[in-house]
């Protein structure tokens, strides 16, 4: 059983800082560090994003298989199943229906980022997270989600 902590923006009224462009985006934060968990979940809530928490790679895999996330923010270095192994397993098991996975780590070398991409991560952000870079990544994914939903809507009306 996976324990997930849901953090959702209030239905009405939305917080003054919520980004309406991010409304409806589902995010999984896979992070083992308690301080980073609190900061990450608060930041996502401030953006108005619905977020769940996985405290290790095993929980991240289980959550990704059980839920339809738009984005997984994956800490690369976690005890047990790390972010690299978790990403590979999510890719293997979900194939084309997989979520967008963004690696998170304090390591900023090109070699480390290449390791993350070769494991199947779509993007990479360094810690500490820069608020605007995270917001831009989420906005890009939210725009993609809206395009997909619009395309599905057009197909069902044909």
Describe what you observe in this structure.
The chain is an alpha/beta fold and about 160 residues long. Helices cover about 45% and strands about 15% of the residues. The chain has helices at about 35-45, 55-65, 85-95, 110-120, 130-155; strands at about 25-30, 50-55, 70-75, 100-105, 125. It has a five-stranded parallel beta sheet with strand order 2-1-3-4-5, sandwiched between helices. Helix 4 (about 110-120) links the parallel strand 4 (about 100-105) and strand 5 (about 125). Helix 2 (about 55-65) packs parallel to helix 3 (about 85-95). The longest helix has 27 residues, at about 130-155. About 30% of the residues are buried. Mean pLDDT is about 90; it is low at about 5-15.
